[in-house]
Here is the input.
Amino acid sequence: MGLGGLISWQQARLFACYRLAGFFPGRKSIVIYELSSPGKVVTWLWMHNPRSPLTFVEPLVPADVYQRQMQALCDLVIERTGLQLQDLTPLEENEEGDSNGMKKARLSS
Here is the structure.
């Protein structure tokens, strides 16, 4: 399966996310998103707490603008593909509302 590249909206078969395991329980500040077709995967990161000392990059725009843009990207993928976001985070890590304010209901909207 190829990584990166372009996927047409019609070819997309899976829209999924999962949280990176953190050093501290309950501190899952980075989520990986994947949009997959039969032959390609496009991935991106959403840093839910971009000012955390444990994140390795910082957005170039203010945090509130960054959060809105990332949510808009997820909403666009859902709208264009007709796919629901599948949260693949293990159940014990995917509790309603973690310390970063991430909510399972919002991720699966």
Q: What stands out?
A: The chain is about 20% helix and 25% strand. The first helix runs from residue 63 to 81.
